[in-house]
Amino acid sequence: MENKPAISNFIRNIVIQDLESGKHSEIITRFPPEPNGYLHIGHAKSIVLNFELADEFNGKTYLRFDDTNPTKEEAEYVESIKEDVKWLGFQWDALYFASDYFQEMYERAILLIKKGLAYVDDLSAEEIREYRGTLTEPGKESPYRNRTVEENLDLFERMRKGEFEDGTRVLRAKIDMASPNINMRDPVIYRILHESHHNTGDKWCIYPMYDYAHPLEDAIEKITHSICTMEFEDHRPLYDWFVRECEMESIPRQIEFARLNMTNTVMSKRKLKQFVDEGIVDGWDDPRMPTISGLRRKGYTPKAIRNFCREIGVAKNQSIVDEQMLEYFIRADLNETAPRTMAILRPLKVIITNYPEGQVEMLEAENNPDDPSMGTRKIPFSREIYIEQEDFMENPPKKYFRLFPDNEVRLKNAYFIKCNDVIKDEEGNVVELHCTYDIETKSGTGFTGRKVKGTIHWVDANHCIPAEFRLYEPLILDEEEEEDKHFLEQINPNSLEVLQGFVEDNMKDVKAHEKFQFFRHGYFNVDPKHNKDDNLVFNRIVSLRSSFKL
Ligand code: ATP
Ligand code: MG
């Protein structure tokens, strides 16, 4: 992996202090996804932060599945998350499932009951909400709040045994219904849910709530720095309360940072799942999705994503990152590594009328003019070629330097050609051009006789490979987002454009995920899902240029 100096941030400073003061001799962080969807670019920010922090100080990072909610979680998500973390370049020191701690969590809940710090409440969910109060009004105590320890132990045991229906009772922490922090107003710790769990099966019908489970998970694993997003800042007193009152030996410290938000990007597993479920995209790995698997299929590299995550930094104040910043990093990476080649996305046939019929010559082309070490390749040239439709205009405006009647342009790596005739179909559409070439102007021979203003790209029509090109735009555009509209009603109708064209003939053996720079069109990735017998499919990763500056 890149050996870049670590970028300083407030969490790193806390870690340095804790190591220097001797509070910890080794730090342990964790990445704790809930397996209820695929990871997205926001998760990458957390992954890079947690893993690189521990790496830098020779600590450890665990991958922990926060699988305490059986209704939304699936084994498929567990597998995809593991794959994505590894693909990003990280290896966890241990893999844990929060559900493995259900027994311990249950026992610690009994401890709370015995200490008089938890009670079984028979209020309905709606009543609990009403009793909770508001930011300006204190809450009201439940009539069940002062049950005896014996009664609570008995009811909780019967909850566990499955004697009660879903939603009829909960276990709550007994803290302070008048606390200015609503999270401290007797939060629910356990609920009844007769539901199979992907890991524990039907062993449990009571499940712990996030606010109770998470601090215990961290403490059980001896996590030193538990990094989460800002929404949990107000939950920190509760986090500390559970660690203390459950008498955990190891005391983790919760630290919050601002989550990643990005322009034109939906960043929530729940919403992304809706795109998938409603068939708006072609699965979680659709290249328009901001998921790690979508970015991978589009053609992003782990290195570009890591560099992006480092550069956006870690802070407490919320901000929205321009999606062009992510594109900046993939361009920077591929600019160095992707071979240059020619592809025609919207073909227009050109006949070079003075080129001998049946003749084919092999021309030399550089794979990267900026990097001679990437070598050269041979490309065939003959009497028939394809150029881009947009590189010809019958009635061009001023300053149009590409092909038009009687004008001469350079074919990249080949010859000058001049347009003599325009062939149209019955409706008047241009279907073919007749041109002549000048043998003196061959590329690489140092011809200086005259100059042309335009250079266009091409592929040989007799030696090329049909290919499909998929061009992407954001699924949702921020400008079109309206308060009262559901996000699914704001889908960008132009998020995918599919074109049928041609690539150079030397690309017949390309493999899934090979990346190229197509002259003037941008960077493309060989789609991993296309069928071997079908045409090649290239996903556009990013166009070549942008006004974005870092
Ligand atoms: P989502 O709402 O998309 O499901 P989440 O926060 O509920 O996100 P988790 O699976 O619980 O998802 O998250 C795992 C870790 O990733 C958490 O520590 C969380 O703080 C972090 N994380 C999630 N989204 C972002 C984001 N946009 N930016 C930074 N970190 C994030
Ligand atoms: Mg979540």
How would the blueprint of this fold be written?
Elements: H1 10-20, E1 28-31, H2 41-56, E2 60-65, H3 75-87, E3 94-97, H4 102-114, E4 118-121, H5 125-131, H6 149-161, E5 170-173, E6 188-192, E7 206-208, H7 210-220, E8 225-229, H8 236-245, E9 253-257, E10 261-262, H9 269-277, H10 292-298, H11 302-312, E11 320-321, H12 323-337, E12 340-341, E13 343-344, E14 347-352, E15 361-366, E16 376-381, E17 384-388, E18 408-411, E19 416-424, E20 430-438, E21 455-456, E22 459-460, E23 464-472, E24 496-504, E25 515-518, E26 522-526, E27 536-542
Parallel strand pairs: 1-2, 2-3, 8-9, 10-11, 12-25, 14-20, 18-21, 23-27
Antiparallel strand pairs: 4-5, 5-6, 6-7, 13-24, 14-17, 15-16, 17-22, 18-19, 19-20, 23-24, 25-26, 26-27
Helix pairs in contact: 2-11, 7-8, 11-12
This protein binds adenosine-5'-triphosphate (ATP) and magnesium ion.
Adenosine-5'-triphosphate is lined by residues 32-34, 42-43, 45-46, 228-229, 259-260, 267-269.
What does this structure look like?
Strand 25 (515-518) and strand 26 form a beta hairpin. Helix content is 25%, strand content 24%. The protein has a seven-stranded mixed sheet, with helices on one face. The protein has a seven-stranded mixed sheet with strand order 21-18-19-20-14-17-22, with no helix packed on it. The two termini are 22 Å apart. The relative contact order is 0.10. With 550 residues, it is α/β, with parallel strands linked by helices. It has helices spanning 10-20, 41-56, 75-87, 102-114, 125-131, 149-161, 210-220, 236-245, 269-277, 292-298, 302-312, 323-337; strands spanning 28-31, 60-65, 94-97, 118-121, 170-173, 188-192, 206-208, 225-229, 253-257, 261-262, 320-321, 340-341, 343-344, 347-352, 361-366, 376-381, 384-388, 408-411, 416-424, 430-438, 455-456, 459-460, 464-472, 496-504, 515-518, 522-526, 536-542. The protein is elongated and about 100 Å long. The chain binds adenosine-5'-triphosphate and magnesium ion. The site of adenosine-5'-triphosphate (ATP) has 14 residues, from helix 2 and strand 8.
